[in-house]
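Per reviewer request, we include the raw input and output of the structure prediction for the construct analysed in the revised manuscript.
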Amino acid sequence: MSASILITGCSSGIGLETALYLKEKGYMVFATARQEKDVIKLKDLGFEAFYLDVLKKQTIKDTLKSILSITGGTLDVVFNNAGFGQPGAIEDLKTDILKEQFETNVFGLHEVTIQVLPIMKAQGYGKIIQHSSVLGLISLKFKGAYNASKYAIEGLTDTLRQELLNTSIQATVLNTGPVLSDFRNTAKQKTRDNIDIEHSRFKDDYEKSLNSDKSTVPFTLEAISVAKVVENIIKSKDVKPRYYITKATYILGYLKRVVSTSVLDKILNRV
């Protein structure tokens, strides 16, 4: 039987492209989304698709129950992909908005993880792929909420990896750089919805970002680049602690290690 994988956040972008790629390769893909219309779309594409909102514990439980009934009680891989980016200067972020960012990107990811772990411990193996970011390695201005959520994922996964050393369960993170998806459009809407642009000292910066029609940044890759790394992880016997995706991640990850914080701050402030 081909490896089975649960992917969260498959409505579009990286989640959808990864699901499509792996399905084409013959893997047993369980694609999920938090809106029923997207679940229907996934089913129309031929997936075993389920409604799963990482903010709602019962939907995770129900989805896993359905998956296990199909596989006979096993699940090989989970790809915690669901998430979004909330832009905004630190001083413009209301605490409730920061909490919202963490609810999805961190607490939702954590809930899926702790519900999957008993399954993998019982079967004696498994792989957990956490979608971090290059912004889990370095920080950029106006992305404080997102930066912090991805740093949290790094900390959780580094700890989990150590705690799983005496098992056959492997945990890893993807440090993805710029990839084509709906991410930027969603982020722009989050800026409009949650940031008081008119009364911010960064008003000009926000308006410039919102009015930019630039669809890509340097080193941007297609979403399929992430899918191929996920497949590599599925096939690998020894999974690496983290996987860099895009040249931007390699460059910025290198700078994080070799230059001082003050120098790096000056470099990043120009990005």
